Amino acid sequence: MRRVALLIVLFLGILPGTPGIYVKLRVAGDATNWTPIVAPFPMNNVGMKNTSAVDMLLRTDSADEDTEDTLAPSAMEVISSPLPSVMAGRTTRFRENDVILYFKMSSGTGTMVATFLR
Question: What is the pTM of this model?
Answer without folding.
Answer: 0.78
